[in-house]
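call fold(seq) -> C-alpha cells
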Amino acid sequence: MTASNAATTPNQPAQVQPAPPQPVREAVIVGGNRIPFAKAGKAYQGASNQDMFTAALEGLVARFGLQGEVIGEVVGGSVLKHSRDFNLIRECVLGSSLSPATPAFDLQQACATGLEAFIGVSNKIRLGQIDSAIAGGTDSISDAPIAVSDGLRKALLKASHAKSLGQRLKAFAAVRPADLAPQTPRTDEPRTGLSMGEHQAITTATWQITREAQDEVALASHHNLAAAYASGFFNDLITPFRGLTADQNLRADTSAEKLAALAPVFGRSLAHTATSAPATMTAGNSTPLSDGASTVLVSTREWAAERNLPVLARFVDAQTAAVDFVHGHEGLLMAPAHAVPVLLARNGLTLADIDFFEIHEAFASTVLTTLAAWEDEDYCTSELGLPGALGTVDRSRLNVVGSSLAAGHPFAATGARIIATAAKLVANKSRETGTTARALISVCAAGGLGAVALIESAL
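ret:
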C-alpha cells in the first residue's frame, strides 16, 4: 500500500495538524457608564435590578453609538436577586438597544461580582474568543427579595404535588404561626452568623485602627468625590436616572466634627470580650446600603478603532485569593492583602510603581487594615510568605476621586464603577505626562474572598 492509498483508507482518522499558537491579544477599556447610586429606600425604591442595569446599559450604548451592535458577550450579576431574575443580564440585553443576538449571562461573587465579570470577559478577549464585551453589576436593597420560612416553603411544595383537596389541606396542617413570618434578606456569614460589619470590627480591633483614622478616610472619600463632580470628571461616566444626577450618599459639606459625633454601630460587644476594644465603626465610616448599577465596555484595539471609539486603558493582569476566616485567625475582608503581592510579583512591580490605588471602601477600616498589613514585616513574612514588608501606599494616590464610603456600595455594581474610574484616571495622567500610568484595583468580598486587577494607560 502506497502512502497516498493509506491516506484515503476508509475509517482511518484524518491527521489534523494543530493550529499554531496565537499570541495573547490586548483587552482594552473603552469607557464605562453607571447610574447615580441611591440610598436604600429612597430614589430607586420602585426600581428593580433589571430596571437599573438596563438603564446603565442603555446609557453605555448611547454614549458609544452601539445601537443594533452585536457585542461578543454581556456579563454581570446581582447579589440580592429575585428568583424571577434567573436570566437577569440576558433580559436586560433584550430590553436594550443592543442586537438581540448579543449573548449574556449572570455571575455572582458578592461584592467582587463586577470585577470578576470584567476579568472574565477581558480574558476571553485576550484569548481571541470574542472581540468585545460589557461587564457590570446591579443591586437593589430597596427591591430585595423576601422569602418565606422553610416550614411554609415545604408545605407549599408538598401541596403543589397533592392529588386531592384533602392532601393539600394535610400539607398545610404542619404549618405553625411562626412559619408565616417572612424572612428578610441577610448578608450574615452562614459559617459564623456574624455580619460583615461585626467581622470587620474584630479585624479593626486586632490591628488597633483608631476612630480618628477611620473618620479621616471617610472625610477624604466625600471631599474627593465632591471635587471630582465639581471638576466634571464624571460627566462621561454617569447618566441620570429617576431624578438623580449624582450619588445620593455624597456629603460635600461633611466634616471631621460631624463624623466624630456619630455613634458606633459595629463592634459594640467587643468591650465585653478579651480584646476590651472600644467600638469605632460608625455609619459615617462604613458604606451605606445602596441601590445602583454600572457597566464597562471592553474590546480589542481593532474593534474600537473600527468604530472610532476611544481607548482609555488596557487590562494587564488579575489575581484572586481567599482566607480562612472561620477556623483561622485572618479577618473576613483581608483576602486582597494576600492577592496583591502575588499580582505585583508576577508583573515585576512594587507598590511604588502604582500611580492610582482604587481600594474598595467596604469600611474605612478595611482600607486601613490592608495598608497596615502591607507595612507590617511580621505579617508579610508569616502570612504572605514575603521576605519583608510589602511597602507603603502613598495616600495621595489612594481613591483620589472618592470611593464607596461617599458614592455608596450597591454590591455587584461597585466593581465596574471602580474599573471605569481607574481607566479614566490612568488615561488622563498618561495624556498629561506622556508616560504609562498604572492603577491597582482591589475589592474585598463576603466569604473571605478578594479580587484584584492591574490596568495601565493605553494611549
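The two ends are 61 Å apart (CA to CA).
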